[in-house]
## 1
Amino acid sequence: MDEDRTTRAAAPIAEFREAGKRYGSVVAAEALSLAIARGEFLSFLGPSGCGKTTALRMLAGFEAPTSGQVLLDGRVVNDVPAYRRPVNMVFQHYALFPHLTVADNIAYGLRQRRPRPPAAEIARAVDAALELVRLPGFGRRRIWEMSGGQQQRVALARAIVNRPKLLLLDEPLAALDRKLRRDMQIELQGLQRQLGITFVLVTHDQEEALSMSDRICILRAGRIVQVGGPRDLYDRPANRYVADFIGKSNFFEGRVAATDGDRATLTLAGGRSLDGRMPVPLQPGAAATASLRPEQIVLTRGPAAAGGVPVRVANRIFLGEHTEYLVESAGLGGFLVLVPRQAEADAGALEPGDLATAHWPPGAALILKAD
Amino acid sequence: MRLYALAVYLFLYIPIGVIALFSFNAGRHASQFQGFSLQWYGRALANPLVMEALGTSLRVAFVAALLATLCGTAAALALSSLAGPLRRLFDALIYVAVMIPGIVIGIATLIALVTLFDRVNPALAVLWPASGQAPQLGMGQASLIAAHGLFAMALVILIVRARIAGMDRSLIEASADLGATPFGTFRQVTLPQIAPGILAGFLLGFTFSFDDFIIAFFVAGSETTLPVYVFSSIRRGVTPEINAIGTMVLAVSLALLILAQAILRRGRRQGSGG
Ligand SMILES: Nc1ncnc2c1ncn2[C@@H]1O[C@H](COP(=O)(O)OP(=O)(O)OP(=O)(O)O)[C@@H](O)[C@H]1O
Ligand SMILES: [Mg+2]
């Protein structure tokens, strides 16, 4: 008994073991293997239709895996229905009960408990939850009297008031405007720290995943491509797909000409070669992609500085804190360069048609498996 | 074109307007209006035959609508969990049932019931203990309730099905996610969500039964509902009293229909709150 408890405490709060889900011939998720640690903030990130919601629904208990296992707290829960799982979900469109008040929505989970907690206790918990999501005094309102952002908070309160072991969030911020989304991201992160509940977030917004998560799980067509911390994924993407999804990048296709430890030289299609760091070992001759972040490239005015790539400015887009330049080079084709506001102010803005030189530090380019 | 539409509306509503107007006529002749009076309403309500027919009508309408609501709601819930093609078939059948003319339903129900009684009554006579007189099944309130209830059930299924189809599925998942058992979810989420449809279905079923003449004419046996009473009185001439009864039936029906509409509309707003 005691032994059982200690092994369970050490076990991850949730785990996928080769879990897959098919709908007829559609494979929504395939052989997912992933352990979610207690108290972490994990995000599923990927484009539309890659299986994020499916993964989340298997944790919630709305879908049973068609292969493999889903575990909660060290136990296989494949056949445990949603209403018997210590897990709560914030739905993409909130799914608040329109026939109940805000307070009754939040109290709903507590009222399902057997034995049912006393009314005064429920009322206290509801008030505390409203306080937590910064909606004190809104309990008597009807759902349709709340704005989108307020409804989102009610949905959050309705879930966390139950103190679930695992809180699932399916694109909870997708319907909010940019500013409100930013605020809610910070609040969600703060709440997660404050409550110590494990959060699993689904998003297709890479910025959201990068800024909030301890770890990000990148999905592609139902499979896990890479799992890691935001920095890991940014600095050491497993392949072009990940580099493309996390942050903006310039890509140059070619073949590995030579390798030396974690460094490699790529021969591009145009015959030019490019040096870079190779996070995942590749064999010489393999098809590969060089990834170069726009913010790692520096532009200097005038042609042909030593070691740089001569370019011509094709377009310039003002983005506030940064200016994005599209430049053309004979050997590399077109690529993007991000210039911080201060650097541009110091050196003077370049105009379309101007000649310049692009530099980047050694090792800035990543040589990745083409996919 | 517009003139044509206007003519159609006038043609439809003038007779109704005339009936309503003359029900307030102080004189007894339908040809000229002799001042406002409620005397015909008083007479109609004081007439024991009218009151008896009204009582029968109300009783039949209430029981038929109640049965239709219970069975229809259960059927609608069962239908919505059926798989695609089968459900579409049943949905189509329900539409057909609502579209069938009353006279067809009346005759069909009459034949079905008569056939049934012809089979059951001899069997009852045989099985009944020798000491007593075996009961004879025949046309009456029960057969009328059955016929009205069947038709009203189709109405209820139609309305409740639409309501279930329009319901946000994620509400049910949210309820389960928060720990409610399937029955708990039904009681606390599904039922409140479809309640406006159920109530509207009841009201429409009631109105249908209360107004119906054709089916009642065939299956009511010796029972007299208000429309049947009106029909039999008219053969002795249209009196202002009949106008008054017709106007009252019209007013009650319209009020119930408007109420049903209002409930459905309000429910739609509450249903889209999430
Ligand atoms: N009930 C279902 N029946 C059939 N196919 C389904 C069902 N649910 C999902 N799918 C399919 O499974 C795949 C993954 O769907 P899922 O909803 O998990 O994607 P997602 O990553 O959440 O996408 P989005 O970002 O658009 O929400 C998709 O191809 C989808 O069409
Ligand atoms: Mg999704």
## 2
Amino acid sequence: MAAAKPEPAFLTTARDRQREMVEQYYSDLASAGGPKRPVAYMLVGGNLTEIVRSFGFEVVFPEIVALNCAIKHVSLPNILHAESQGYGLDVCGYVKNDLGLQELGGQTPFGRIPPPDLLVCSFSGCYVYVKWWEALAEKYGCPLFMLDVPYMRDAEPQAEDIQYLVTQLNEFIALLEKITGRSFDLAELRKTLARSRKAEQGWVDYLASGKHRPSPIEAYFEAVFYMFPINVLRGTDVAADFYATVNEEVRARIAEGHYPVPEEKFRLVVEGVPPYPSYRTFWDFFRKWGAVSVAATYPKVGGLFDRGFLHDPARPLESIAEYSLGAYVNQSWPLRRQIIGEYIRDFEADAVLIHGIKSCRSFTAGQGDLRDRLIHDHGIPTLYIESDHEDPRYFAPAQIKNRMDAFFESLDRRRGSVPLPVVNA
Amino acid sequence: MAASPALESSASLDSPPSLELSDSFEEFRRAASIDAITRLAREVLLDPTYPTVRAWTRAGRGAVGCFPVYTPQELIHSMGLLPVSLHGGGESVEISHADAPLGSFLCSISKSTLELAMTGLMAPFRAFVFPYICDVSRNLEGIFSRAVPNATTHMLHLPQNFQSKASVPFLVAEYRRLIAKLEKAGGEPYRPERLVESIELFNRQRAEIAQLTATQRAEPGKLTLTESYLIRRLGGLLPREVHLELLGRVRKELGARPNRRKDAIRVLLVGSFCEQPTLDLIDLIEQVGCYVVDDELLQLHRWYDRVEPSGDPLENLAATYVRSPVDIGVRAAPTTKAAAIRQRVDAADAQGVIFLTAKFCEPALEDVVLYRKALDERKIPYLHLEFEERSAAYEQSRLQLETFVESILFD
Ligand code: SF4
Ligand code: SF4
């Protein structure tokens, strides 16, 4: 039966540190803009933050602004405003949050988001990126650089893909030199990438700790909070130090036997973007059953560092090219299935939970097929739930709770009778 | 993950397959008039069992299904395979299997294409190519193999950076990946001289189609949009040699046809570049009093005028695609959307714009917002209609179209 509901456990120092970093970031942004600190907009997947920052830009990630708005329950007015401009119900909620917010002046509870001086579209795994950045370019009339990232269909990056990307990166650098009047400093980039690598290694170590039984981390709900530095502040000492703090606390958790779910009953792999407007509620539906996410695909939207890739200062542009290919949604469905299969095996998961996003085809189209394959071809208990990442109107708590309760109940009944699957989904 | 066999049932079809064509496509070779050609075209379109593909493959030849909007069909043709433009299930396919694997909030073409595969109707195809035009088409490829376990599937990454000097070499490399797959799927080995021949054939087909659409624009009383549409649609279904002959007959007949002018407004039809509206809806647009002087329907033969056959044909094919000026929802804009729509209105001397977009087609829908703003600024009237393959809102569309036409006629 269901356990009493505990409060969600966070790593204390790391969580405080993360809050400070986010506050600092938005306060820096609020004072940016103008000739001294121009602003570049970038997408999380395949982002070129190290290069852009080396030219003195502040970087806005509208996806992250959007999820922050959703989690703070202020996304709906932005969405409604975008809808009043003609964006339909089915358009990605991130896009509507951003375009609505832009029209409304960019003010959020965590600071004002400055308009862009440069738009960098890393087209890595989501076609909506292209449409979104076109709309911003239309509104602001600022330069738009399109980094066309080939879709990953083979397990390893292909030489022609890398060549294509490196040429584009050189063209991008030439554009930045022209815009800013500054020269590109390769030696500085190498140093920045060394710091990125350190942060990435820390992030990978954190994610790998989900293999412990019981898991000392919550690899979906909690990990989402610790994603911020790896996506936004990569290349800084602050990010690298942050993961050192995180991992120290994780080790302490293991030593003290203090786990995010005190009585771990079910180990889950979670696929899909979280329902940010109802984040806590959704998390509660897991915790009441002693269910912990031991691995999740969503924290890999910025890069698949846990699968062997780390930036390499010795091959700066080549490794940035490889990085841009590695956004999770830039992986073909066969590769995504393989990743999920390996998570199930390596993290000894009992079941898979898929959270589908109504307004995101990139993640969601085909998740039903994944569910069918997991259940019917591999015998892995899998639940598919659908709502939205931005739009609170799509979260039906009673219905979702009922389905999750029924799922965990049946999992409970099956416990012990099903051998652990070995999957290459 | 192990593949499971395609579902056997074809219960989702409203009507059983009926049209049997001869291996040599005599029916089309004999169709002497536009009337006869378009009658046959209607029969082909209403039969979801791919009659032209069945006729072609009966003699042991291979066919490749090409999802919209652009695939290098010249290349596929040069390898002895029939490139076939896929346009979903149209009106005759009801979705009963494809909803679950694909998910909700998705356009009909993605679902009906998967439905056709899951019900075994795509068995005559040897391979499928899905260009990365949007996340739906891309993901569809990733789950398609399970429905057609014996066929090859390929996701083609078309470049979205049209400024880079590396875009053409990259696309050549992409085409080489496709060649490798098609050779494995039973295509003849790639030979540049064969590609040159195919390019020349397709150049002739494009020139004929360009003439057809030029007539539609300059003398809209000569042929209806439906006629033009059906003739063009056959271009992606028939062996190109057969289609080319047929286009020659169409040209001759049009030369002698009177330009019967009627009281109609000149409109631009925007947004249906991938999923296709029903024939009834296409008919309706003209019935209510519109001359469609430019449209985005069936873009394939209109990406460029011609490909240079001399030199390296693969590189020429790639370069022509990259340099194409086509600006639709699934190709990053070479200019702003506002400038593009105004330029098209001016070039076609259009009095208004009809946005005819597939339901849930996010690339089209996002453009419409920008287009509308640009048109508002110039006070150019427009109407936005959404459709599905099995649209039920026909009467409502008629009313909206009539009101739109009247508002322009009596302005
Ligand atoms: S991946 Fe999904 S959520 Fe992210 S921008 Fe694309 S459509 Fe929106
Ligand atoms: S109709 Fe639109 S969303 Fe659907 S596959 Fe075509 S381009 Fe993509």
## 3
Amino acid sequence: MDVAAVRRDFPILQQTVNGHPLVYLDNAATSQKPRPVIEAIRHYYETYNANVHRGVHTLGTKATEAYELAREKVARFIHAPSAEQVIFTRGTTESINMIAYGFARPRLGPGDEIVTTAAEHHSNLVPWQQVARATGAALKFIPLQPDGTISLDDVRRTVTPATKLVAIAHVSNVLGTIHPVREIAEIAHAAGAVVVVDGAQSVPHLPTDVQAMDCDFLAFSGHKMCGPTGIGVLYGKRKWLDEMEPTYFGGEMIDVVELHQSTWKETPWKFEGGTPIIAGAIALGVAVDYLTGIGMEAIRQHDRALTAYALERLRRVEGITVYGPARAEQRGGLVTFNLEGVHPHDLATVLDAEGIAIRAGHHCCQPLMRWLGVPATARASFYLYNTEQDIDALVNALQTAKEFFHHAIG
Amino acid sequence: MQLDDLYRQVIMDHYQHPRNVGELAADAITVDLRNPSCGDEIKLQLQVKDGVVTDARFRGSGCSISMASASMMTEAVKGLPIAEALALSRSFRAMMRGEEPDRDLGDLEALQGVSKFPARIKCATLAWQALEKAVRPQPAE
Ligand SMILES: Cc1ncc(COP(=O)(O)O)c(C=O)c1O
């Protein structure tokens, strides 16, 4: 992988921030966009902007073809058996809510269980809390090991015949842990439960094969994988999607509308009520082309090498605590940490003054922060355009922050 | 971007040695507030007698700016009639918007630099939000 060439594809990286070259290490929040993706949005609006699935005119046909082509590209990218199993949504959060409302709520009741972990993003926890409240089902948690991993024995102990749904992130956005979703799916299926995988942090970074993973649903966001904001995906097994209720009712999603009742289109269109995010979907297709061109295996290796380098360099910083699994092989491309004596917000401000963008706070994981016993953490997250020099800049700036604060506090 | 504009000596002093940390008697007005976007928390307690803030204490966790601001706020409002405490809060918020303070804000003026760091303004205003919540007249039932 030629990182220098990759970097040239990302116009935003060519700037200085606060007088320093931008070092963007907040990729788990959102990734930057390569020129072809930005161009695709412009090209759509400048040459064939039209609504999809309605017009007879030329532009309408062109827009519809491009929109459906994007669906096919995404399906190939995740190895879905068919393009009809790819539903365009606004992002991971909406995808999971659609499963919660359209699939889980009608099926669950008192005595049933939903199994998840305390490390989930709020987007993969709060919807299940709501389902539990509405249906009387119980919410259960697979315990976390001290390094944030989970053991399959614990999964076997937590999942029971009463378990109807297991919801877990493939990669944790705080600890970076890569969870064994395939084995978890096996255990869940043996108990008769379906598996919902939050792929927000995995699909952008790891080769994804929904059939090998054997998940029942997969949710992810375009904006973390070089695509625009406002577009995401819900993948599901055919039979579940066919049985699942739409969430939004109205235009686009209907078949026959009468005064008192209506019927829906087939999957996936029954889930795409209203005018969809057309330019976003098309641009996501281009993002997928871009990532495929570089190769997801190459991106994974790049992330892993950077993570290994970051772990090694950060561990040598005095006063640092690094959270999550010890080895880069067990992790996605991110490192979460705290620096003794410097609150993460203060740290982020000091780093920002050096042009370095990291995330500080609870990362939408308040229960996990409680489990870690800290109010907040700092997180550096990597992607295909990051370099070892970026990590060197981070480590040097941590040193600056320490000195600044120790001096300031005197 | 000048870090020294933000992290003034007075702020660091309050951060390291926060004033008025602790709890008041059970009849004190208590407000628990958090900033959901970053996780900063404050529990503010005020003793109000005859419309005057006679004592103030807080506990919290957060960054240097939020904790220093809470420490300074408790010092500043002690002894003030409620109306004046609210007026002070308005002046402080105006300062956070980048306006020149319309009165002498004492130590609080050390926080003026925060206005140049938009991402950190909410850190500085958390304690003031708690103050306003504590003393603002409640709508009638
Ligand atoms: C693991 C995980 N799940 C869910 C989400 C929510 O994604 P979105 O905000 O794009 O819906 C995120 C994004 O921060 C995430 O990291």
